[in-house]
Design brief:
Elements (H helix, E strand, L loop, with lengths): L5 H11 L2 E6 L6 E5 L1 H18 L5 E6 L5 H16 L3 E7 L8 H14 L4 E10 L2 E8 L13
Parallel strand pairs: 3-4
Antiparallel strand pairs: 1-2, 4-6, 5-6
Length: 155
């Protein structure tokens, strides 16, 4: 309809029996449409709902170990961390010190470095080892990977 003043636009909208809806307020001049406002709000809600559906939620899964962890227990926890990373979640690995174990922070450091080395092919370090009270933690994220394309079947 072209550029017009607000009273003129309101008058045209009322003559048709619809509402004047501001679509792009930051444009110069602001863009308005003559339409049913209820229908406009419904379409906006529908678009927001569709966008929310396509959104992926990344969770942080935690694995706790002790500084004196056995090899089998380590392998078991490592399987969990690898599964978390391949599922697209983040993994937080905590070494939990009790009593006088806190003196041997180097053991916790070695365990965390071992986790980093063993998950190097599928994950990367988001935060380096750091002490949080009696826990030493790292956060691992999965490496960005593209889904494999399916090959067409040969007949």
């Amino acid at each position: 309809m072209g550029i017009m003043t607000v009273p003129e636009a309101l008058e045209k909208a009322q003559s048709v029996g619809l509402d004047l809806v501001e679509v792009a307020p930051k444009a110069d001049p602001p863009v308005c449409k003559v339409m049913d406002y209820g229908k406009f709000r419904y379409q906006q809600q529908k678009r927001a709902h569709e966008a929310k559906k396509k959104q992926s939620v990344i969770q942080i899964k935690e694995v706790k170990v002790r500084p004196k962890i056995d090899d089998h227990d380590y392998e078991f926890k490592l399987q969990h961390v690898r599964r978390f990373l391949t599922d697209g979640d983040k993994a937080k690995v905590s070494v939990w010190f009790r009593g006088r174990e806190i003196v041997h922070k180097d053991l916790g450091q070695k365990i965390l470095e071992r986790f980093i080395a063993d998950t190097d092919d599928i994950g990367e370090v988001e935060s380096l080892p750091r002490m949080e009270g009696r826990n030493m933690t790292i956060t691992l994220t999965g490496k960005a990977h593209k889904p494999e394309k399916k090959k067409p079947k040969e007949e």
